[in-house]
Amino acid sequence: MFMKAIQLNGFGDVSNFNEAHLDTPAVKNDEVLIQIKAAAFNPIDFQMRLGLRESRLMRSPVLGRELSGIVIKVGPDVIGFEPGDEVMALAGSRGSNGSYAELMALNYRMIGRKPQNISFEEATAIPSSGLTAWHSFNRMQAAGSDSIFINGAAGGVGRFLIKLLKANGVTNIIATAGNKHSVAALQELGISFGKIINYHEPDLKGLLIAANKGRQFDYAVDLVGGVMAEMAADVLKMNGTYVDITFLGTSTTREILFDKGANILNIAAYAFAIENNLKWYGESLNYLAHLIETGEIDAPAVNVIGSLGVQTVQEAHRLMEANRIYGKKLVMKV
């Protein structure tokens, strides 16, 4: 038996993707075999393709870290799943292969149940962004009176984090956006126009502080890196909390944060896999599914750009590299 997959033949540009027919993954005792129905794209995908730091996490030439689908086989030690179950997962690099494929074998502890009230395409947009946002939200422990600055807020993690914060009474959120599509995405989340600041403006720091009634922020969340990481550090108050989700801050960023005595939260959802705490993924995904099913938060907005194929994968990588996501998760049907 074979499965269709899109694999990477070498680091570099998108021409290195090709279609392959690979053996059906073997299923270990504690794994399930998932028929993938939809896969989502993440910036880490193109960073891996380029051979950057994240490529160290690769275990397969088939990229793709999150999916939704249907269980079609279970190993003898699997608890709580059976064929026919609709599921979603952040496989990271723990699956038999990436999610640019028709099938994947994965440890059952990393799998959550798909929310019943949404599509497979919406469900596949939950795991990576949702778990990263959930990890951030839990570690932040922000109160209703706290002020939050988020750069890159219109991306998947930012949108999910805003939903979690607002659902828990944290509403003083200031965000940056660089185009009308991102502004619209943030407004749909309930961020008022006066709290969305165009990061192309010359006096960005002054505008951010003004939007927060002349005060520096209790929390600054960096989802961009580079000079925007420096800006996030610059508008943070003394002894405030800096949430780093990119690992792309500069030496200037670190200097500013040190001088302010900042509390720094490094967020990496793959950290739980490193310590082999695999049940965190399944349990957290099930909780996020509960929040969506009960209407406490909405399902992610998605842009389905095609079906499993080389051209779909190439187009997704081009859009991500050009930062042309525009507030919707890129998804392909499988």
Automatic annotation (TrEMBL):
Q: What are the residue boundaries of the Enoyl reductase (ER) domain, all occurrences included?
A: 12-331
Q: Name one Pfam family in it.
A: ADH_N
SMART domains registered for this protein in UniProt? PKS_ER
Single GO MF annotation: oxidoreductase activity
Superkingdom per UniProt: Bacteria
Sorted alphabetically, which PANTHER family does this protein's record hold?
PROTEIN AST1-RELATED
Under which name does UniProt file this protein? Answer: NADP-dependent oxidoreductase
Native species: Mucilaginibacter rubeus
